[in-house]
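Suppose a colleague, Dr. K., hands you the sequence of a protein chain of 200 amino acids and asks what its three-dimensional shape might be. Before reaching for any lab equipment, you can write down a predicted structure in token form. Begin with the sequence itself:
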Amino acid sequence: MPGLRDRAIIVGLGNPGPKYELTRHNAGFLLVDQVATETGIALSREKFKSILGVGSWCGLSLVLLKPLTFMNLSGQAVVPALGFFDVDPTQTILVHDDVDLPWGDVRVKIDGGHGGHKGLRSIFELSGRRDFLRVRIGVGRPRHGSMSDFVLDTFSKQEWEWAPHVFDRARDACRLLIEQGSVAAMNAINGLPPLGLSSD
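The predicted structure, expressed as tokens, is then:
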């Protein structure tokens, strides 16, 4: 399958503000920040209830988007941006944390349900579509305590030691989606073992 054409959007899901900056739920934001740094795309514009940047990557026009709506209202940012840039969900990569995967596991997915992820749920409901490209960054589940507290907590010291490698793999997943398409990306990424240690 060929890669994406003309223009793509990478949407990192997360919550705005310094309080949430290094939390597990902000894995999508952290990945977009990394791609912005590596590509030289400045995240300097505020539009569509988001901070965004426009540039190019892998020979493609690329929009990087971080919704500022808070997670459960992500669709209010993403859907208007897709309309403005005339980008279909099949050209849109949603990067998000996933508690159903262990820490350090990265998977590429197309379509499917939201799995209880409130950011995905908002986007699916407001767009009426589910056929987005997705890069899932595993954060694991808590051994005790509430799931909400867990995802809104910062990465542990052990997790953070492996974070650069995990986000490099997530970046590679995005690049493969853009350059070679979903089948090649899934074949290259989904069979790799998780990186680092399991979540505490």
